[in-house]
Amino acid sequence: MKLIYDFFIIVAYIICQPLRLISTKVNLSYKGRGRSFEILEKEVNPNEKNIWFHVSSLGEFEIAKPMIESLKKRFDNLKIIVTFFSPSGYENSKKYGYADSKVYLPLDSSYNAKRFVRTVNPKIAIFIKNDIWSNYLNYLKENGTMIYSVSSRFNKSQFYFKFYGYWFLNQLKKIDFFYVQDNNSKNILEKNSFKNIHISGDSRYTSVLDTLNKNKPIDKVEKFINGQKCFIAGSIWDNDIKLIDKVLKSNIKSIIAPHDTSVDFITSLNKEYGDNCITLSNLKNENDFKKNILIIDSIGILKYLYRYAHIVYIGGGMGYNGLHNILEPAVFSIPVLIGKNFKGFAEAEDLTSLGGVFSLNNPDEFYKCFNMLDDSEELRNKSGEINSSYIQKNVQKNKVFIDSLVEKIEYL
User: Fold this and answer.
1) Given pLDDT bands bounded at 50, 70 and 90, which one contains residue 407?
2) How far apart are the first and last CA of the chain?
3) How confident is the model at residue 397 (pLDDT cuts 50, 70, 90)?
4) Where on the phi/psi map is residue 69: left (φ > 0), alpha (ψ -120 to 50), or beta?
5) Region 319-331: what's the mean pLDDT?
6) 278 and 260 in one domain?
7) Same domain, yes or no, for 50 and 149?
8) DSSP label of 210
């Protein structure tokens, strides 16, 4: 089975090559992986106390950040290496100072995995969520590295637990410790003879609480809102625009933060909403501040903007790209609206049942729900309180993993 896996990895790599011509992200990923070993061999000393975090993309990186920062504050002699699978994580991590080295994860071939483990020689390897690679597990185990799976979720429909996934299930058993998000994941692993399973929640709760406490003002945005109610649509795609269009064309102050900040997408928004909108980078003249729609054409400030909203919509749920981070606005005690596809996102499932988050199927449903919240400060406050209380409770769970990891590092 290993030969089949290795063959599949190489074939997938070759097949995806043509996508470099039409996808900036794919091209960045290929170029970045080509430099990974060069960077590692320059920046990493295999004889030091190296801790390796692997994340898939930006969302997983947000989960890792509180862990990384907590470790760096407690241990002066630790070296943190972070690898990324996708450009959305790596390209937005370049200024992150707590990691000693940041690279794209080299392709999971036997040669690359063996070379990576030899180059880094991690004392501990931490895979965030479910982005786990078989060849890396093999060579980490041979190296005597302690392996963690953190903030992961498992369910019986995953291929690990099917008859054809037996080989992958055995690979998964090379992980020493599982810190999962929920009881269901713990129960499934226990039924399949896994050990050392703990429930630790999701460190994004700690991360968003840190954003809340920073209270970072953005003067231009404050001037644009001018004390009025403000609707913010964060991390949106084309199909999200269709859902919220009627609100954007009303007189309510609105801020749009596209997931895709490319020139093409920004241009299409400008074309659709005409003289009523302005991008943040062009927000200069007094007349610009009087417009109703502000388009955020930069990355990194969205999580600080949510404090200015009275209602927030989070994108991704109207398509199949995956729902984006609803915790970032929820921490500000704000009601959050999402699209119809949110299954598998634990926080969205919990908060829709509690009444802090509202899932809408079509534009009519969205507009009706928006107006209901817009007209009732009492309902907004109630929903917002549900969201913030939920986050506070989950912050406590995350300490379980950090405390355990600290204990292990002290004996390295």
Assistant:
1) confident
2) 34
3) low
4) alpha
5) 91
6) yes
7) yes
8) H
Residues in the chain: 412
Contacts of 190-196 with C-beta under 8 Å, sequence gap 24+, read: 192/160, 192/161
Coil, strand or helix: which one is 218? coil
Per-state percent for the chain, helix, strand, coil, to nearest 5: 55, 15, 30
Residue 258 lies in domain: 209-393
The Cα 274–Cα 353 span in angstroms is 38
Question: Is the per-residue pLDDT at 52 higher than 80?
Answer: yes
Q: What is the largest CA-CA distance in the chain?
A: 66
- CA 335/CA 348 separation, integer angstroms: 12
Buried b (16+ CB within 10 A) or exposed e, 351-377: bbeeebbbbbeeeeebbebbeebbeee
* Phi/psi-derived region of residue 296, left when phi > 0, alpha when psi is between -120 and 50, beta in every other case: beta
Percent of the chain with pLDDT over 90: 66
Is residue 225 over pLDDT 90? yes
pLDDT at site 50:
97
Q: How far apart are CA 124 and CA 148, in angstroms?
A: 8
CATH for 185: 3.40.50.11720
If asked whether residues 348 and 213 sit together in one domain, one would say: yes
Number of neighbouring beta carbons within 10 Å of residue 409: 18
- Is-contact 177 149, C-beta < 8 A? yes
Do residues 157 and 14 share a domain? yes
Domains contained in the chain, number: 2
CATH at residue 249: 3.40.50.2000
Give the C-alpha distances (Å, rounded to integers) separating 359 from 127, 271, 363, 404: 31, 28, 12, 37
Q: How many helices (H) and strands (E) does the chain have?
A: 18, 14
103 lies in the same domain as 244? no
The reported pLDDT for the residue numbered 398 is 67
- 207 φ, ψ (degrees, to nearest 5): -65, -45
> Do 57 and 148 sit in the same domain of this protein?
yes
Nearest to 131 by CA among 182, 55, 58: 55
Same domain? For 51 and 194 the reply is: yes
Give the C-alpha separation, 122 to 79, whole Å: 9
Identify which of 119, 114, 159, 161 has the alpha carbon closest to the alpha carbon of residue 140.
114
Least confident of 64-73, 205-214, 336-345, 395-404: 395-404
Q: Please tell me whether residues 118 and 88 are part of one structural domain.
A: yes
